[in-house]
Model the fold of this input.
Amino acid sequence: MKLLDHDIPNMRLELEYGGRDLLKFANTQKMSQISEGVAYQIWMDISSGLEHIHSHNIFHLDIKPGNILLGDDGRAKICDFGYSLQHAVKPVRSSIGTHTYIPPEFIVGSLRGRPGDIWAAGLVIMFVLGIMPLPNPGYWKISDIQGKSNAATRKMRDWLGEISLYKESIPAKHSLLQRMLELDPTDRITASDLAKELIEQRQAQARTLALLH
Done:
């Protein structure tokens, strides 16, 4: 989001209008009403956005549909960096953010970083592509998850189990989504590789269409 103007004494920021957040594009069953073409563009935009901030050693730590804005031109932008961490290189211990988008590795070591942003973005794309609805599991406190078999950990494990079931519905053409949602963070695709491969897929699709016509 571009900063257009600011007034420090009055604590005012004037930002460009980025559109509506992705939560506004869900129906009463919490399923996405976004077309596949627009959904694919959102996927590319989020990936390139994460590639950019990760290259500048910034972890967002709160990627979710409510923090992705979709403009009238069909382009998406990441917003709300209130929980972000600057000058970040290695994963950090952090219990801020939104519980349903916390990566699975948090259960073991309470760590968050670039792979955690990719995991959260993967869940956003699962919603955008109509593979799963907006999350609605029981609430738990992130700070209560410390690798123990307590109520919060059990609820998170149950939620991860639901995600695994939704992952079985990912079509082969969206195999990159599976790589965003690898349980092991070391196996998860990076933002730079994701952005690159999505562009290559788009170009391949364009070449195929050109040959058909």
User: Anything to note?
Assistant: The longest helix spans residues 191-212. The radius of gyration is 18 Å.
